[in-house]
Design goal:
The chain has about 400 residues and is α/β, with parallel strands linked by helices. It folds into three domains: about 90 residues, Cobalt-precorrin-4 Transmethylase, domain 1, CATH 3.40.1010.10; about 100 residues, Methyltransferase, Cobalt-precorrin-4 Transmethylase, Domain 2 (2-Layer Sandwich), CATH 3.30.950.10; about 180 residues, Rossmann fold, CATH 3.40.50.150. The strands form four sheets. A seven-stranded mixed beta sheet has the order 12-11-10-13-14-18-15, sandwiched between helices. The protein has a five-stranded mixed beta sheet with strand order 5-6-9-7-8. The protein has a four-stranded parallel beta sheet with strand order 2-3-1-4, with helices on both faces. The longest helix has 13 residues.
């Protein structure tokens, strides 16, 4: 018998009663945690399928036989948190009456074990997903995460260490609810060489996490002789660039790192690559990044465009310094991402001209140019005088097509 999309009718138009499909969250997995509702449902079901005993393909194949009666599917973890239940509901609503039955999740289980609430924590799944755990930890004091696939505990801790977060506290829950359950709390730097079960749960605590939505003022940075983009120009430029939470952003000519750090806060689920040819400036960027908790920054010592070669594809790019290589830098950026958005600053008309010509040459359209004139009050005896800073040109555009070769 063939079923029509939503109405539970046969091909002849007769109203029929669909069999039930129960999607049950197993939580950590041990049966001692099953609720009475789960036990009753398992007792009534004509067949029970478990995602731990069969592949996803096998499960889907089995579910395409609704005539086998009421079916219960035991789903690993929480049926409402990065669960396959979403796909099953989409694909099989015309085959079954579907009901979700939640169980005790592994995150709530670990939370109770270590006596830490998760109502103010960020919850993520790293199981088979490309999540920037560094950004999550940098800007949140509490993070609960499910591990799995390539993102096991050891790799996560090594990533945290590589991004200067080796001192954060990591609590690992392994084989939760089973007789051989293990819960260990240590610094990431200690756990990076220890082996754990692939499907573990971790709680990461960063007591020094910063608020990514707060601005940073010029006086908040460590300064030197390295040039720095002033705060008003910095804020306008980043606004023009339109940095979004998940963006990968290049800061070319990072200087003190002031723009890199503010962009890292805007891209609080993304990553910033600060490219700088001056070795002393690279050290300064790292010091300022640590000072402001911006650990989703990687400092690249080198000169653009060559230094961009092995980096991830950028969504946005800021050009603060180009060493007279504007044309090849814009060309390279557009070749990396034919739809990239670029903002650049200039204090000379000659550089502004080079930028506008390069934008036009490589298909960076919708060009927007503004001239920013900032004057700040300065005390002179009994009076306040406005002292002008150098005018700065801010040019922004978005590439629309790939470079023809």
């Amino acid at each position: 018998m063939r079923f029509c999309a939503t109405f539970g009718r046969s091909a002849k138009g007769m109203v029929i009663s669909l069999n039930k499909l129960f999607l049950i969250g197993m939580g950590p997995g041990d049966e001692s945690l099953y609720s009475n509702k789960i036990k009753q449902t398992l007792g009534m079901a004509n067949r029970v399928l478990c995602t731990r005993d069969m592949s996803l393909v096998e499960l889907m194949r089995e579910l395409r036989n609704p005539d086998k009666g009421d079916t219960a599917v035991l789903l690993s973890g929480d049926c409402g948190f990065f669960s396959i239940s979403k796909s099953i509901i989409t694909d099989f609503s015309s085959f079954y009456q579907i009901e979700l039955i939640p169980g005790i999740s592994s995150i709530s289980y670990l939370s109770a074990k270590i006596k830490v609430s998760y109502d103010d924590a960020v919850l993520v799944s790293l199981h088979g997903r490309d999540i920037n755990i560094v950004s999550k930890v940098a800007y949140n004091k509490k993070v609960f995460a499910l591990t799995g696939g390539e993102n096991d505990v050891r790799d996560i801790c090594r990533t945290l260490c590589r991004c200067r977060l080796g001192d954060v506290s990591v609590c690992v829950g392994e084989r939760l609810s089973y007789p051989d359950e293990r819960i260990i709390k240590e610094k990431a730097s200690v756990l990076k060489d220890m082996a754990f079960d692939k499907l573990s749960v971790i709680f990461i605590e960063n007591t020094s996490a910063v608020n990514p939505h707060s601005p940073i003022y010029d006086n908040d940075f460590i300064r030197s002789e390295i040039p720095m983009t002033k705060e008003e120009v910095r804020w306008l430029s980043i606004r023009k660039l339109g940095v979004a939470p998940y963006d990968i952003v290049f800061d070319i000519g990072a200087g003190t790192g002031s723009v890199s750090i503010e962009m890292a806060r805007k891209a609080f689920d993304g990553f910033v690559y600060a490219i700088e040819k001056n070795e002393d400036a690279c050290c300064l960027v790292l010091r300022n990044a640590a000072l402001h908790g911006a650990y989703n920054i990687d400092v690249i010592h080198g000169e653009a465009p060559d230094a961009l070669e092995k980096l991830p594809v950028p969504d946005k790019a800021f050009i603060g310094g180009s060493s007279n290589a504007v044309d090849v830098i814009v060309e390279k950026l557009v070749s990396l991402n034919p739809n990239i958005r670029i903002t650049a600053t200039s204090i000379t008309l000659q550089t502004l001209h080079k930028l506008t010509e390069s934008f036009k040459k490589y298909g960076v359209t919708g060009t927007d140019i503004i001239c920013v004139n900032i004057a700040k009050a300065k005390k002179t005896g009994k009076y306040d005088m406005m002292v002008a800073q150098n005018p700065v040109y801010i040019i922004t555009g978005e590439a629309q097509c790939a470079i023809e070769r």
